[in-house]
Amino acid sequence: MDTTARADVWVSSVRLYRTRSIASSECKAGHVRINGAKAKPSQQVKIGDRVEALTEGGQRIVVVTRIITKRVGAPVAVQCYDDHTPPPPPKEEVAVMPRRDRGAGRPTKRDRRAMDRLRGR
């Protein structure tokens, strides 16, 4: 069993990125950090390292618990790291403005008053 792996290989193997080439380009762009320092694609990752990756889904923070070099299924990949990613902030509820049907014409006085009440005017 290997004790280290390339950073781009490991992050793609545990499915933080879809492919190794994407993982490599993200490392080069500075979106992957190992123990707080920007990681080059060839940097070695070992057990206990803290990996921070900026992915499509947002910032991911993981601690390496197992080294793998081949892409595996999602249930197995989850066992290779401890996820320390903070939960996303709650989504703000936005009041939905009712829409008039297309071709319904201009709103009547009653409709306008109802819209004003809804807007709080």
Word description of this protein:
The protein is an alpha+beta fold and 121 residues long. The chain has a domain of 80 residues: Roll (Structural Genomics Hypothetical 15.5 Kd Protein In mrcA-pckA Intergenic Region, Chain A), CATH 3.10.290.10. Strands 3-2-5-6-7 form a five-stranded antiparallel β-sheet. Strands 1-4 form a two-stranded antiparallel ribbon. It starts with a strand and ends with a helix.
List strands and helices in order, with pairings:
Elements: E1 4-6, H1 7-13, H2 20-28, E2 32-34, E3 37-38, E4 44-46, E5 50-55, E6 58-64, H3 74-78, E7 81-83, H4 109-119
Antiparallel strand pairs: 1-4, 2-3, 2-5, 5-6, 6-7
Helix pairs in contact: 1-2
- Tell me the quaternary state: single chain
End-to-end separation in angstroms reads 69 Å
CATH architecture type of the domain at 4-83 = Roll
Helicity range: 25-40%
Task: Assign an overall shape.
Answer: elongated
User: Averaged pLDDT, please?
Assistant: 90
CATH topology of the domain at 4-83: Structural Genomics Hypothetical 15.5 Kd Protein In mrcA-pckA Intergenic Region, Chain A
Instruction: Determine Rg (CA atoms, Å).
Output: 24 Å
Spatial ordering of strands, largest sheet = 3-2-5-6-7
CATH superfamily of the domain at 4-83: RNA-binding S4 domain
Number of helices: 4
Question: What is the tally of beta strands?
Answer: 7
The CATH class of the domain at 4-83 is Alpha Beta
